[in-house]
Design brief:
- Helix 1 links the parallel strand 1 and strand 2.
- The protein has one domain: Rossmann fold.
- The protein has 99 residues and is α/β, with parallel strands linked by helices.
- Helices cover 41% and strands 17% of the residues.
- The protein is built from five helices and four strands.
């Protein structure tokens, strides 16, 4: 297993592949299966586009983002079709000071 995985669209995956990263362009509905396999040791970093993250069930998203190892990060979608999560708003909601 490689140390870094990228999950996203084919265009972005081509760039990450050139950088030496293991890339996966999951078919719709197969994202969770691929992520379960990718989050096993020795993987250290999992990169997801916002579009892939948006396809995951909320409970799975919460489990993934709570992992210490591997680190799971969401990247902007190349087509900008799915907005990135608003991290500042998420923190405000958790603190109970949301506007």
């Amino acid at each position: 297993m490689p140390a870094i995985f990228f999950f996203g669209d084919a265009v972005s995956a081509a760039g990450w592949h050139l950088a030496g990263v293991q890339t996966v362009v999951p078919a719709e509905g197969e994202e969770a299966d691929w992520l379960a396999r990718a989050c096993a040791p020795p993987t250290q970093l999992v990169l997801l586009t916002a579009a892939v993250a948006d396809q995951l069930p909320v409970a799975l998203q919460q489990r993934l983002f709570a992992l210490v190892a591997p680190l799971v990060l969401v990247l902007p979608d190349v087509r900008d079709q799915v907005a990135m999560p608003d991290l500042a708003d998420g923190v405000r909601q958790q603190l109970g000071v949301s506007l």
